[in-house]
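TODO from last week: model Membrane fusion protein (Multidrug efflux system).
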Amino acid sequence: MRLGRKPVLAGLAVLALAGVLVWWWTHQRVYPGTDDAYVGAHVLTVVPEVGGRIAELAVDENDHVAAGDLMFRIEDRALKAAVDQARARADAALQSAGAAAEAELDVARAASREAEADYLRQEGLFRRNDVSQSALDRALAARDQALAEETAAAQQLARAQASLGDEGDRNAGVREALAALQMAEIDLDHATVTAPESGWIANIDLRPGSVVTAGQALFSLVGDAEWWIEANFKETDLTRIRPGQPAAIGIDLCPALDLEGRVASIGPGAGAVFSLLPAQNATGNWVKVTRRIPVRIALDPVPEAARFCLKAGASATATVDTTAAPGP
């Protein structure tokens, strides 16, 4: 009788094991998970838009900054001088647009009036026989020359107005000078660099007195306003995963911390597709390997006390509940 119990117990053990395996397979299918996941955040590269010497440095490695906080300031004396120079040129352009040609016309008109008066005076003296015919002829020639110079000055003014355009700030030369002034003021504003968003300073090797150039990458700013999980799921797990489904998140840095999130998006291709040297499988010894597709999971608001556990690139785990209806 005792010998008859062994096969029964063995059968029960096999059934129990089979039940566990079925439960595990079903659970993995309904709640797909992966430990190939990492914490993601916006990492900004801080680049100056103007070059110069660092006059003030307000941040250091691992410092936290709020949006709008001063990070560093570039020596701006030359930039201020450029603004003053551009402003002076703009003022001069506003004052002198067509003024030179108008001044020449005024001089020509005055000379013409004077020549006309001299001719009339010489003509009166000639009638009284007080001057010779040659003197009257010279006065007439001077008057005609003055009239010709007045006409030429008027034509020169017309050409100047046609080439310069409208008066005041509608004049092409004036607009060019005002644009140069605006660019100089923008460069001066760029000498003061503030944080575009709140976050943490990283990878900084900058000191007061260092000379930087426009477009030079100086350090990074890891934003703390938005966090997500970049989870790489097996392609066979994606049959039920949809955007909006809830997900449970674990952070290796803080094992006791349980976070929640929702599937934000599913990548358009496997990670190998976007690598610098994509794998070439057109060989005779090809072995099929299950690919992994990146899935971005947006984290729900994280308690302030738990924010220490969020580090860009930190390892994480993600499990998606595919039984829940996708959210909005």
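Done. The longest strand covers residues 219-234.
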